[in-house]
Amino acid sequence: MKKIHAIAIFLLVITILGTGCAQREGAEERGIFGGDKGVETRAFIGGTNGLLLEFTPDRPLAKVFSGGADPFDVEIQLMNDGEWEVLKDDVLITLSGLDPGEFGYTEAVQSPDEDLLAKKRDPQSTIIPSNPVFVIYESLNRAEPVIGDTTYPVRADVCYKYGTNVISSLCIRKDLRSREEGVCTVEGSKVVQNSASPVQVVDLAANAASATSLAFTFRINKKGNGKVYRLDSDCNPQRVDENKVFVEVDTGLPGLVCSGLREGADNTGYADLRAGEAIIRCKQDVAVDNDFVKTINVKLQFDYKETISTSVVVQPVE
User: Fold this and answer.
1) Distances (CA, A) of 223 to 72, 83, 271, 304
2) Considering the entire predicted model, what is its pTM?
3) Secondary structure of residue 276 in the 3-state scheme
4) Considering its fold, how many domains does the chain have in total?
5) 172 CB contacts (<8 Å, ≥6 apart)?
6) In Å, what is the CA distance from 137 to each residue of 115, 156, 288?
7) Which residues contact 215 (CB under 8 A, 6 or more apart)?
8) pLDDT above 90 covers what percent of the chain?
9) Predicted pLDDT at 274
10) Tell me, what DSSP letter sits at residue 86?
11) What is the CATH classification number for the domain harbouring 63?
12) Which residues form the domain of 299?
């Protein structure tokens, strides 16, 4: 009898552990931002990067001689680590720290010769990275002699247009206030998926605003370390252009109106990311004859500025 009890207890423990594992696995399927339904597929690769920037090795050299006999290059490598294609004409690289008159170069602002394609995932779920693109400032040369070792900063400011595609869902019901079980639940947090980008929608929640209207709210966050500017501003460092993100909300249904957006239409406009975030509230009219799940698409677009820096020591000729 004791043996039977021991076996029964062992089986009970195994069952509880198995249930716990299943619950944990299910929680992982809910997606980063929670929600009332599991995520069976991932729409995007995900991540919080846009372009990755770095100086290529020995460009610039750590030390060079003055006197005009030791030219050197400055080269910046750009890699698109996000999921938004960047056209070459939408990238501006500004070199600073070195006086063009002293170092003999004429173009402080350049654009790459190639577009920066977004990283992709093929049908076999293999991630295909973007190819690096290079911008080079050639044959910089300090013609005038220096008296002693002189350190100059070398800085590259990169401004580029970027964006985020966001997918979530709404529960549309004939009676939004119904408590009967249906194909979906109107109220609560919804799963949100973002394409890889330094600005993202971090959560979305819905509730019935009336018998014939559905309300939903989402929050936009700046995730990257760069600076956000108004779209097509070329990263103009004026307060009026700082922290502005152009937002488009599309449910595919008529009667959508959003607040928290300026200079746009009922469901488009600029959000102001003060303190790095903005909250957008929308109301959707609902007049349907059946219940269904409706995809909601949000698009974010902005100019984004990132900076890398190093230094070069200019030495006197002995």
Assistant:
1) 36, 15, 15, 12
2) 0.83
3) helix
4) 2
5) 214, 253, 286, 288, 291, 292, 293, 294
6) 19, 11, 61
7) 206, 207, 208, 209, 281, 282, 283, 284
8) 75
9) 87
10) B
11) 2.60.40.10
12) 162-304
